[in-house]
Amino acid sequence: MKKSNSILFAIGCVGIVAGTLSGCKSYEDYREERAEYAVKHFESAKYRDYLDGKKMTLQECVNMAIQNNLELKVLKLEEQVAHEMKTAEMLGMLPELNINNTFTSRNNTPASSSEKVGEDGLTYGYSSSSDRNLNYLNIDLALSVLDFGLAFFNTQQAEDRALMRNMRARRAGQNLKLDVVRTYFQVAAAQKAIRITTQLLEDCRNRYKLIDSLSKARKITPFRAFEETRRFVQMEKRLTNYIRSYENSCVELRSQLGMHPAGTILVDDAVLNEVPDFDFPNIDLMEQIALLERPELYEIDMQKHINILECRKTLIMMFPNVRVYGDFVNSNNSFLYHMSWYELGIRAAYNLLKLPQQISKYIAYSDQVDADEMRTFSQAIGVMAQVRMAHANLLANKERFQIDDRVYNTYKNNLKWAEKNQRITGELSSLELDHMRLETAEYEIERLLTLGNYYVSYYRVFNSLGINKLDNKSLYQIKIELRNARRRAAAELAKAKAEYNEEKAARMSKQTMALKEMESKVVNQPLTTANDVDFIAIYSATPQKAQEMLGAKKEKK
Question: Which position among 13, 115, 341, 357 has the lowest Cβ density within 10 Å, counted as fewest Cβ atoms?
Fold first, then answer.
């Protein structure tokens, strides 16, 4: 038996060593694996093209990005993993159920003898109370109260982590939508710019020959020829930049849609033919909406609740570990009086030396909860600042568009007037007219870019609010929710307002005492121009008080 056990042990050790060595990887292994991934991903990316030459609208681009963006898919998979972890933690609340079956066999009778200890004790020869072949069946059901409590709180924490993943994916989707909108309007503006400048660039290149011929015919001076050429070259450079920006924007937009970045994309730029008039509620309500809807704030609240549950888990660990168990045993030993029996029991254990550690952990997690509370308030201040900056950016882009639109219309009207009243006076007038056409086209493109920025700033406001739309129905529901929340927090708000008023009164009292001390000191000083200036500077907010003090000084003198 010992020899066979040694052989089994050796085989097990060899298997463990072989499995360990087979799991080791060197740099060459990773290099080979990475090469396979490089080929596979490069070839697979070619088949991720869902456009087929179709002209895409903004809503279609956003929907396609939400559906096919790979980074967003990764977040969705992580959310599914978090939900599975919650299920695993929930199953951890089940009691332990162990089923053991033990079979033993001996080659001789398991007999034993006893030795006499006392003078009057009985002695026995060799005897046996066990068969050669034994089989024990044991079913053990045990419930640890401590493990059950920890599993219960772990389940709640896993639920919070799953919700955090959901909030993270939700915010990533909002940011992705804003990025798609920004890139979409870049592509749309570049498309229209290319259509506007294609023929103009061709005409611009033809004007070089005209300038050269005029210079050779001595109709213009060399300095005039150089200046005209320089103006056309600069304009050509600025107009060709829109073509390069179109290619870069197409690559960025295709990658955001989860497609192969190579190639172009055709978008519907008809949206730039209209000038919208966006309307939002007042800024205070917008800030409250952002504090209610932003996923980052929910994520911090969930993390705070996780730390609160850690505090409760620490409190549970301070109690004894009580274990309730039931045990059923069946044996085929013929020498036993009862072949089957069961046991019920309760076992309690307490490690006193772990208590100081648990107390320290509880204090640490309590401080972490306070830090999360402050982090929530800090994040709320940042969110309100983002709302105000997004709204200010919207107003600034609107004003900038109005200026560009006015400038473009001025150039366009002047160009129409020049073309209508053009007289055949030679080739020089056509050069000036070409310059006017190019400058008008440039201002038209600037107007399109500003209009695209105006649209983007509109969607940036929604991104700062953490919502996708804001109609009258949803706005009404948000107002009701905020009103109910204000009613629930009325007592706490009143307390905070009272504390603020007390602090303000204390500050005002200190300032008043300091001013009175300075007033008495300055009144007693000689009347000089320098001191009079000090009076006016100190009491600039209350000039009447300054005049009274100056009058008091004069009377005293």
Answer: 115
Q: In angstroms, rounded to a whole number, what is the distance separating the alpha carbons of residues 117 and 126?
A: 16
Under the phi-then-psi rule, with left for phi > 0, alpha for psi from -120 to 50, and beta for the rest, what region is 242? Answer: alpha
Report how far residue 216's alpha carbon sits from residue 427's, in angstroms, rounded to the nearest whole number: 14
Supply 218's token pair: 């001595």
Q: Which two tokens stand for residue 49?
A: 């093209």
Residues linked to residue 341 through DSSP beta bridges, in sequence order: 329
| Domain ranges (residues) in the chain | 48-104+132-473, 489-556
Q: What angle do CA 264, 266, 267 make, to 5 degrees?
A: 135
Q: What is the DSSP string of 38-92?
A: HHHHHHHHTT----TTPPBPHHHHHHHHHHH-HHHHHHHHHHHHHHHHHHHHHHT
Both ends of the chain: CA-CA distance in Å?
A: 121
CATH superfamily ID and name for 48-104+132-473:
Outer membrane efflux proteins (OEP) (1.20.1600.10)
- Three-state SS for 303-335 is HHHHHHHHHHHHHHHCCCEEEEEEEEEEECCCC
DSSP 57: P
Burial class (CB in 10 A: 0-12, 13-18, 19+), 428: middle
Which residues lie closer than 8 Å to 309 by C-beta, 6 or more apart? 153, 156, 157, 160
Residues whose CB is less than 8 angstroms from the CB of residue 304 and which lie 6 or more positions away in sequence, other chains included: 369, 372, 373, 376
* Residues in contact with 438: Cβ distance below 8 Å, sequence separation at least 6, in sequence order: 200, 204, 232, 235, 239
Six token digits for residue 131: 């068969």
Going residue by residue through the chain (557 aa), what tens digit of pLDDT does each one get? 444 455 555 566 555 555 555 557 788 888 888 888 787 777 776 666 666 667 888 888 898 888 888 888 888 888 889 889 988 888 888 888 899 999 988 888 888 887 777 666 666 677 888 888 889 999 999 998 888 989 999 999 999 999 999 999 999 999 999 999 999 998 888 888 888 777 776 766 666 666 776 667 666 667 767 776 777 777 677 767 777 778 888 888 888 888 877 777 888 888 888 888 888 888 989 999 999 999 999 999 999 999 999 999 999 999 898 999 899 999 998 888 889 999 999 988 888 888 889 999 999 999 999 999 899 989 999 999 999 999 999 999 999 999 999 998 988 888 888 777 765 444 446 667 777 777 788 888 888 889 999 999 999 999 999 988 888 888 888 888 888 888 887 777 777 777 777 777 777 777 677 666 666 655 555 545 545 555 545 554 455 555 565 566 556 55
- Token pair in block for residue 443: 């201002």
Residue 343 parent element (H or E): strand 340-349
